[in-house]
Design goal:
- The chain is α/β, with parallel strands linked by helices.
- It has a domain at about 5-160 and about 190-215: NAD(P)-binding Rossmann-like Domain (Rossmann fold).
- Helix content is about 40%, strand content about 15%.
- The chain is built from 10 helices and 12 strands.
- It has helices at about 15-25, 45-55, 70-75, 75-100, 130-145, 165-175, 190-205, 220-235, 270-275, 280-295; strands at about 5-10, 30-35, 60-65, 100-105, 150-155, 155-160, 180, 185, 190, 210-215, 220, 245-250.
- Strands 2-1-3-4-5-10 form a 6-stranded parallel β-sheet, sandwiched between helices. Strands 6-9 form a two-stranded parallel sheet. Strands 7-12 form a two-stranded parallel sheet.
- The longest helix is centred in the first third of the chain and has 22 residues, at about 75-100.
- The chain is globular.
- The termini are far apart.
Length: about 300
């Protein structure tokens, strides 16, 4: 009988990391998991990374951790560079020395988003913000250590472990008569539970390397994403105070000091081919999320986020 694959998950306190750990631990006969959240491993402290990872034996590491606040990255650029570039580089070097595989979780923000259309692996990147530049540099750092490692790019992750945009919209619609969403910024929402399934499938296929878009199918603006969530919630009987999402323009959001790309919808076509699975639309994934985690039964009028 084969021994369980020993997998380290860094960033287990986030939406994606938590979903990944839960999925891996659901089959202990296949995977042995060591999980580090921010408290256990502070990526601003290289000594902690070294001490933790050099002390254990493992077969693969998935880094889900990052500094993701765009304004925070602009305000604290050295911190962002350490967390998003130097820490992944250090992890890659340790993995390479240990003969372990590494998967670095990246972002659609590496693209400048100047033109509509689907982004595919190999398309030119042109990151606009310090956050995006550090994430792109983190990709390059990891693959520069070992070209057989993988940068998995995803976007607009939602899931049950930490509130995301869709949760904020739903709670706002419960108490306010107006809800707003940006109408001219496009990408694809991605469900953390499915991302976990796909990443585990990738783990079992060592030949998958380089760059890979890991996301659901379809496209949405923040407005249409929010509208779909309200439509599903209303259908399921949630007593919303509003059922319409009013569109706004990205350029009108004065709180956004860092530049954001407009069009970063990625195609997961290669992902589907590589793992031999059909990749579901974000609409279907969102419905499952809301039905599973918000409603104890169909048509429930008692939301339980």
């Amino acid at each position: 009988m084969n021994k369980p694959l020993r997998v380290v998950v860094v960033g287990s306190g986030g939406r994606m990391g938590a979903a990944l750990v839960r999925h891996l631990r659901s089959t202990p006969e296949r995977f042995h998991v060591v999980a580090y959240d921010h408290k256990a491993m502070d990526l601003q402290r290289p000594g902690q990374i070294e001490d933790h990872l050099r002390a254990i034996q493992f077969d693969a590491l998935i880094n889900c951790a990052a500094m993701t606040s765009l304004e925070g990255c602009e305000d604290r650029p050295e911190e962002a560079t350490q967390v998003n570039v130097e820490a992944p580089r250090q992890m890659a070097q340790i993995c390479d020395a240990a003969g372990a595989r590494m998967i670095q979780i990246s972002t659609d923000y590496v693209y400048d988003g100047s033109q509509p259309g689907l982004r595919r692996e190999g398309d030119p990147e042109n990151p606009l913000s310090h956050y995006a530049r550090t994430k792109w540099a983190g990709d390059q750092a990891v693959l520069g250590v070992n070209e057989t490692f993988l940068s998995a790019r995803t976007s607009w992750v939602f899931g049950p472990d930490r509130p995301s945009f869709v949760d904020q919209i739903l709670h706002q619609a419960l108490k306010d008569e107006e809800v707003f969403g940006i109408a001219d910024k496009f990408s694809v929402p991605s469900y953390s539970a499915e991302l976990a399934v796909w990443l585990v499938a990738i783990l079992e296929k060592p030949a998958i390397q380089g760059l890979l878009n890991v996301c659901n199918t379809g496209q949405a603006s923040w407005q249409s994403y929010a509208q779909q969530a309200l439509d599903i919630a209303r259908e399921l009987g949630w007593p919303l105070r509003t059922s319409i999402v009013t569109g706004t323009k990205l350029a009108d959001i004065t709180a956004f000091r860092a530049p954001r790309p407009y069009f970063t919808t990625m195609s997961p076509e290669l992902l589907g081919r590589e793992i031999g699975q059909k990749i579901r639309s974000w609409n279907d994934a969102l419905r499952e999320y809301l039905e599973t985690f918000y409603f104890s039964s169909p048509r429930s009028t008692n939301p339980n986020p």
